[in-house]
UniProtKB/TrEMBL annotation:
Residues 5-107 form the Epoxide hydrolase N-terminal domain. This is Epoxide hydrolase N-terminal domain-containing protein. It comes from the Eukaryota. Keywords: Aromatic hydrocarbons catabolism, Hydrolase. Pfam families: EHN. One of its GO terms (molecular function) is epoxide hydrolase activity. Transmembrane segments: none annotated. Belongs to the peptidase S33 family. One of its GO terms (biological process) is epoxide metabolic process.
Length: 690
């Protein structure tokens, strides 16, 4: 790669003098009745006024200094058949970690369009999405534009006027714009050469610019005075909107003047660039999966429920196999990275009596262990509530996480199937430590987990996925990755259906699949630790959805006319119509078993603390009041119940990243213990559940 150097604009004084001399001897056309009629072109009086100001009043050095406040750089790029191309660019780093790079390509002469489209064709793995907002002989017009500043001014001024939406241009803005072309290193003629080079380069490759490119998502915006309408046939359109109300962008090309004429409309959507971008989009073909689905307000295959429907396409099976293969491959690659990062074969495995969950890790996971133990106390007869590092030798010490449960030996108990309704294993030390293992996985304690997995007698693989009873659902630490898969795939797919992001009948939260997934990953169970992060994200309280919930409470049955002890619903004629999911608003779905309570967010807690301090209470007292009232953040989303809302973008991005980490870390730990987890099969089972 060529060196990148700092750059500052510094037009030689002789060029400024030459421009002044040319303007002084400029010859203008003879005035006629229509000289100032825009229907005939640029008004003569406007050009005379601007030319006079350009020569006598315009301060280029002041504009030059203003432009040089931008962080500018230059580099050289070798272009086959055209030698070395000097590139001048502005680069500003984001203040956010792991932000998506956003590339703005300039318009005239349409370099931005060609470069943006070609990047998506040649490097789809690096271009997440693109947003788009003339063949000629360049030397002819180039001669006039180079020799005559009046010609350049007239040419540019006409475009500034006709291709902007009544933007109130000042003379300084116009002349700064024109001067950039006038004083550019390559000269004003260079902007026209792209048309010739584009046509006379590789015709086969150039044609691809106008062909469908499935690998890169496309955003289109239409301005009131656009000179052409962009076709959606160029790629999988994420969003089409007028006045640049576009999201899901990565590479932006605005033809000629779109940004300048309506900058607020374009800048309004820059925060959305990473908001609704599918996670791991450069590795996982989400567009391929979403192309196999269509949104239906009433899906006959789902009993008339609103849902996503598999399209009856011949290539559907091929596309789905491509998706699952790519997804599974990506899991394996990231799992290998986790293994290389955390596995340490140079140290011997831990001894059986070694404390492998140290005090710091124990303190970190103790709160959710306590929360889980209290939720299953009625089944296990537990009443352990003391937090902190345990130093007792017995499990009956009353501590949430006894010291004996933190030793390596506790992770070596093998699962043995029990008879129906015996529930023996859920009270065993093996089950308890499988939950400790899950808690550490949820908190990312990978170094300790890899050390545990290195022991030759570790038995956690036997607790991966088992049943409490043959007629009950599966439990085990696989639920952490399965729930993460459910949420991860659901939300990434919905990011490709922007028509469902609004309110009303098309609301994505009405979809049967959405309601099923939210229920499945947040409901109560004997091993509900994996549900905690999902409850916090979706704003579901503990106990809102109970295990084996029949959804037959008087509240929900009376409102939705469902028969007792079933998950079916009836229309006003009393006819049974199948599952209630997908037929009712999300708010009603959440309240099916019981009225949901309001869960405060961190912003709510901060506001209440501020109110208490505003009343004159010391911060310490305010914190005690909040603690005694158990008023703490229980919801992550600033806008409740709407993960795809633009104001929830940061939380959505972190949640998707967290789920991906749970998936890949589970794969890494399984591989470390010699487990052969078929992730393509896991994806297939997920599809069956949905």
């Amino acid at each position: 790669m060529a060196d990148i150097s700092n750059y500052a604009i510094n037009v030689p004084a002789e060029q400024l003098k030459l421009l002044s001399d040319k303007l002084a001897i400029a010859t203008f056309p003879t005035p006629v009745d229509f000289s100032d009629d825009w229907n005939y072109g640029v008004p003569l009086e406007d050009i005379k006024r601007l030319a006079h100001y350009w020569a006598n009043g315009f301060d280029w050095r002041a504009q030059e200094a203003r432009l040089n406040k931008l962080p500018q750089f230059s580099t050289k790029v070798d272009v086959d058949g055209f030698g070395s191309l000097s590139i001048h660019f502005v680069h500003k780093r984001s203040h956010r970690e792991n932000s998506i790079p956003l590339l703005f390509c300039h318009g005239c002469g349409d370099w931005g369009f060609a470069v943006t489209r070609m990047m998506g064709i040649l490097y789809p793995q690096n271009v997440l999405a693109s947003h788009l907002n003339m063949s000629t002989k360049p030397s002819t017009i180039g001669m006039a534009l180079t020799d005559s500043p009046i010609a350049l001014l007239s040419w540019m001024y006409e475009k500034l006027h006709d291709w902007t939406d009544d933007y109130p241009w000042t003379d300084d803005e116009i002349l700064t714009w024109v001067s950039i072309y006038q004083f550019s290193v390559a000269g004003p003629a260079a902007s026209a050469r792209i048309y010739y080079e584009n046509i006379h380069a590789s015709r086969a490759l150039t044609k691809k610019i106008l062909e469908y490119n499935e690998a890169t998502k496309l955003g289109l915006s239409y301005f009131p005075r656009d000179i052409m309408v962009l076709p959606s046939a160029w790629g999988p359109v994420v969003k089409m909107a007028e006045d640049c109300r576009v999201s899901d962008l990565c590479t932006l090309h605005c033809h000629m003047l779109s940004v300048l004429r309506t900058p607020s409309l374009v800048l309004l959507h820059i925060p959305y660039l990473s908001t609704n971008m599918a996670h791991q989009a450069h590795n996982i073909p989400w567009t391929t999966l979403s192309s196999c689905l269509s949104w239906r307000l009433s899906n006959r295959c789902e009993g008339g429920a609103a849902d996503l429907h598999l399209n009856p396409r011949r290539d559907r099976g091929k596309k789905l196999r491509h998706f699952t293969t790519a997804f599974a491959r990506n899991i394996h690659e990231h799992a290998e990275c986790e293994i290389r990062k955390h596995a340490d074969d140079s140290n011997p495995p831990p001894a059986r009596d070694e404390v492998v969950v140290d005090d710091d890790a124990a303190a970190l996971i103790a709160p959710i262990i306590k929360r889980w133990r209290q939720s299953v106390e009625y089944r296990l007869g537990m009443n352990n509530t003391r937090l902190g590092a345990c130093s007792h030798q017995s499990d009956d010490c009353g501590c949430v996480l006894p010291r004996a449960r933190r030793k390596m030996a506790a992770f070596t108990e093998v699962f043995h199937a029990q008879g129906c309704y015996s529930d023996m294993h859920v009270g065993s030390s093996g089950f308890f430590n499988a939950e400790v293992f899950t808690a550490m996985l949820l908190h990312g304690q990978m170094q300790a987990l890899f050390r545990i997995c290195s022991h030759p007698e570790v038995a956690l693989q036997t607790w991966w996925e088992e049943r409490e009873c043959q007629c009950e659902e599966y439990f085990g630490w696989s639920r952490a990755s399965n729930s993460a898969l459910d949420a991860y795939i659901l939300l990434n797919v919905l990011l490709h259906f922007p028509q469902t992001w609004g309110k009303g009948q098309a609301d994505y939260r009405r979809l049967k699949t959405y309601q099923e997934v939210v229920y499945r990953i947040t409901k109560g169970s004997v091993d509900e630790l994996p549900a905690y992060p999902h409850r916090r994200f979706f704003g579901i309280a503990d106990g809102q959805f109970k295990d084996n919930d029949s959804w037959d409470s008087p509240h929900s049955r009376e409102r939705w006319l469902r028969p007792k002890s079933s998950r079916r619903w009836r229309d006003t004629g009393g006819k049974s119509q199948g599952s209630v999911l997908g037929h009712i608003p999300y708010e009603a779905f959440v309240d099916l078993d019981q009225i949901s309570e309001y869960l405060p967010s961190s912003q709510d807690v901060s506001h209440v603390r501020w109110v208490l301090c505003k009343k004159g209470l010391p911060a310490e007292v305010a914190n005690i009041i909040l603690q005694e009232a158990r008023y703490h953040a229980q919801r992550r989303l600033p806008v409740p119940d709407d993960p795809l809302h633009s104001n929830n973008s940061d939380e959505l991005r972190m949640y998707l990243t967290y789920n991906w980490q749970l998936i890949t870390r589970s794969a890494a730990l399984g591989a470390r213990m010699g487990m052969q987890i078929d992730w393509e099969q896991q994806l297939g089972l997920l599809a069956e559940r949905s």
